[in-house]
Amino acid sequence: MSATGGERARSKGGSGSGARGRSTEPAAQLPVARVLVDVSPHHLDRPFDYLVPSRFDTDAVPGCRVRVRFNGRLLDGFLLERVAESDYAGRLAWLQRVVSSEPVLIGELLELVRAVARRYAGTLNDVARLAVPPRHARVENEAVAAGPSESPSPPDSTAWSRYGHGAAFLRAIREGRPARAVWQSLPDEDWSTRLAELAAAAASEGRSAILVVPDHRDLTRLTKSCAALLGDRRVVSLSSELGQAERYRRWLAVRRGDVRIVVGTRAAMFAPVVPPLGLVVVWDDGDDQHLYPTAPYPHVRDVLTHRAHSSGAALLIGGFARTAEAEMLVESGWAGEIVAGRTEVRSAAPRVTAIGEDDAQLARDPTIRSARLPSIAFQAARQALREGTPVLVQVPRRGYMPALGCARCGERATCRKCAGPLAVPVGAGDTARPPSCRWCGAIEHAFRCANCGTDRLRAIVIGAARTAEELGKAFGGVTVRTSGGNEVLDRVPDAPALVVATPGVEPVAAGGYGAALLLDARAMLSRPELRAVEQALRRWFAAATLVRPSDRGGRVVVLAESELPPVQALVRWDPSWYAARELAGRAELGYPPAKRVASVDGSPEAVNELLDCVELPGSGEILGPVPLGEVDAEGESERERALLRVDRAHGRLLADALYEAQVRRGRGGNGPVRVQLDPLEPI
Fold first, then answer.
1. Is 440 flagged in the annotation as binding?
2. Do 158-345 and 349-584 have matching folds?
3. From its phi and psi, is residue 513 left (phi > 0), alpha (psi between -120 and 50) or beta?
4. Can you give the pLDDT at residue 396?
5. 64 annotated ligand binder
6. Residue 368 has what pLDDT?
7. CATH number 3.40.50 given to 349-584
8. Under DSSP, is residue 256 helix (H, G, I), strand (E, B) or coil?
9. Is 452 annotated as a binding residue?
């Protein structure tokens, strides 16, 4: 996809040059500009040659924004380079305008855009839109701010000594060595301060650093930690939530070298820091917000891994849990581990209790396996409240009763007509109203469990709002707070209260929670998704880290059977053990990351058209296509999905094959297709 040789095309003879073009003189030196025109189709994904008028000679620098005539339209573009002559035999059109002489797509950023486009079978324009924010003229013309002239002092490395190889990793960053590691953070760790120390280690030797977190809450915390250690002028925060002017102002400050430490959400992975790049960090790489939702759908972990490899920077993938992708880097030897010893882990973690850990537990509460809030959960909550501490209640969903099951055996309640899940309409205060099918809408007036014959229903996954109501009745006089949806709490006081929260928005309690109840754990594990168990475990670990250590009375109750492997990983606080198990299981079944997978979505005709153009490597196979659920008036599927799977060693060949297939398909007479490599949920 580089702009060389036969891959280049030229603009058609003199389009848009007109009378003004005939009187224009070309620049005396390097009169030909190779321009990346803002067009989307793959078959137009290449630079086009234009003549540079002499009046633009000074401003038309590589990397600047320009406007050109293309197929009769005036379009934006980036000037990639200037050359002495074009090998196009026809007549070249003129560069119409230099929008800005600021070089925004040049050097390492341009090479990164090319690499990401190739990895994900995308176009240069697709990636450039993600990497370069929209221009803001007033901001661009502002005076350039002078960044800090002196490097900060090296940070204290004492806290990193709690981890095996932790102090050595910090030392490698200071020395500019390309160390790569997966960090397993302790449950009581101030992770944002630890990451700020790594950034300070890079900055102390005049190197840049990029630290990426999944969401705004984590970004606020990390920004404060970095500013406290390095000072406000040495750190800039980048995220899509910023307004256009402020985002461009901060982005320019990074590109111009005024700031060398960048923290941000996924947009920051393309931050154009001034070399040398000393450190890249991704925190909580299992969060799905690290995946860009627009083409070509790059993932922060993969982009930063490439940046570390190509620039020789240090890489850290950190979190309380561990993904199968991070485990693969460790097992392959490409990255090392930064983990604490078992003694440190036990002293920092809360006590975790699961269902059925011993016979005595079952004897005391025979309904422990079927009750939504069994006696062990009540006891843990009451004890924490008596001690004057808040209790966290994690609920997978917000709202009322998303799904129903048998009140006796817990079997999921299904529609007799289509086998879809039964549920009470959102907003219903109890189960007195007849449930209806969430797929076909049929009302069930006479439910009877197909497994045990019982005619009674109960909610399998009750949302946060209903849970808060029920807990308020069970714990009379205790304050009940909720966090989720549009009502997110950042912090709660160190006082008796029940805090009901959905995953990812659990507020921090001053001094830590006395207990945490992880409800509907079995429902989270049974979701029909590839990463359901990995995501459930990640959310459990995140909630459990908010609880006080066991020596201060902290306790976590997970409402799932203790013999389940993910529950065992939580009880033992051993995420790396489960990640290795998960990776081995996926390798056996041929799932990512052991295999590289691409999904192709679109109309049946469009999907088949693209599959006909794909030339897969020897290990390649096509699964499907299968309907995605939508049907038209005649009952025919409106959209289908096919999966393409190859050995991981052939991943680059798969990306190239899909790119070439989209080029050969051209505009596609059968409609658009959505091509995504490494989707989070391929099945």
1. yes
2. yes
3. beta
4. 79
5. no
6. 46
7. yes
8. coil
9. yes
Single-letter code of the amino acid located at 452:
C
Task: Say if residue 406 carries a ligand binding annotation.
Answer: yes
How far apart (Å, rounded) are the C-alpha atoms in residues 557 and 560? 9
Note whether 354 and 571 are within 8 A (CB): yes
- Select from 195, 171, 173, 175 the least CA-distant residue to 183: 195
The answer to whether 268 and 94 are in contact (CB under 8 A) is: no
Residue 309 CB-half CA count within 13 A: 12
Q: Does domain 32-133 have CATH number 3.40.1440.60?
A: yes
Task: Report DSSP letters for 35-59, one per residue.
Answer: EEES---GGG-S-EEEE-BGGGTTT
Closest CA to 659 of 269, 114, 130: 114
Is 226 annotated for ligand binding?
no
Predicted local distance difference test score (pLDDT) of residue 8: 37
Residue 50 in contact with residue 93, Cβ under 8 Å?
yes
CATH number of the domain at 595-677, out of 1.10.10, 1.20.1250, 3.90.1150, 3.30.70?
Answer: 3.30.70
* Residue 145 confidence (pLDDT): 65
Q: How crowded is residue 298: how many other Cβ atoms within 10 Å of its Cβ? A: 27
Angstrom distance (rounded) from CA 648 to CA 667: 30
Alpha-helical (H) ranges within 532-648 are 532-544, 565-572, 575-589, 604-613
Kindly report the backbone phi and psi dihedral angles of residue 627, in degrees, each rounded to the nearest multiple of 5, phi listed first. Answer: -65, 150
Contact by Cβ (8 Å): 385, 393: no
Q: What is the pLDDT of residue 30?
A: 97
pTM of the entire structure?
0.86
State pLDDT tens for residues 334-360: 999 999 999 999 999 999 999 865 545
Predicted confidence (pLDDT) per residue in 624-652, tens digit: 888 886 555 555 668 899 999 999 999 99
- Provide the 8-state DSSP code for 297: -
pLDDT attached to residue 405: 74
**Residues written for the chain:** 683
- For residues 328 and 593, give the distance between their C-alpha atoms in angstroms, rounded to a whole number: 8
Measured CA angle at 513 (ends 507, 518), to 5 deg:
80
| DSSP one-letter code for 205 | T
The Cα-based distances of 342 to 158, 181, 347 in angstroms read: 19, 19, 9
| H or E element at residue 339 | strand 336-340
DSSP secondary structure string for all residues of 482-509: EEBTTB--SEE-SSSEEEEE-TT-PPEE
Instruction: Sketch the domain layout of the chain as residue ranges.
Output: 32-133, 158-345, 349-584, 595-677
| CATH number, span 158-345 | 3.40.50.300
Give the pLDDT confidence of 241-257 residue by residue, as tens digits. Answer: 889 999 999 999 999 99
Of 528, 473, 532, the residue nearest 498 (C-alpha): 473
Residues with pLDDT less than 70, the chain: 1-23, 143, 145-149, 356-372, 397-403, 409-410, 412, 417-421, 424-433, 437-441, 459-470, 528, 629-637, 668, 683
